[in-house]
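In the present case, backbone shapes were mapped to integers, as reproduced here:
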Amino acid sequence: MDAFRKHTGLAVPLDRPNVDTDQIIPKQFLKRVERTGFGQFLFYDWRFVGDGQLDPSFILNDSRYRSASILIAGKNFGCGSSREHAPWALADFGFRAIIAPSFADIFANNCMKNGLLPVVLTEAEVSELMRRASETQGYQVTVDLEHKTVTDAPGFSASFDIGEFQRYCLLEGLDDIGLTLKYEAEIAAYENKRYVL
């Protein structure tokens, strides 16, 4: 997966609590076996109206946020089923980080295993970021995993916590397979010494 160290990007506010994984990527689109191609179906029931046209009232359809790569969300983001397709869809759409007051545990783990950084800030901090993203044209935020901070040019600054193992994997761009392959030489040496019938 792509390493995550420091990312500056356009921020979009999704001011809704308890966004579940079925809203992130509805079940009818879970037929693919690869990790790509899900972005077009992200928030499908909110992004589109009945005739398949974009719903102009949904925040991601607002032209001001077309190239957003940082999602600012409400509490308990990613609740519901444990589908790994949810972070795949968010990443495929172009998001690199999600900032919220809280995340469902399995969803947060799935994000980190797929190079998408879930950042937990206080409700007051998230509310302030949402306000700034709503009121400021082209509002950008910098998420710095090395220093565990979220900042913007006007002076917002907040720090966040993340497990050191998860942080290491994201900084190095290591998913579960990549982590195992770091021990490829040791694995090969063991296999070469095994008694074969």
The two ends are 38 Å apart (CA to CA). Helices lie at 21-24, 44-47, 85-93, 105-112, 123-135, 164-172, 176-181, 184-193. The first strand starts at residue 6 and ends at 14. The beta strands are 6-14, 70-73, 97-100, 117-120, 140-144, 149-151, 157-159.
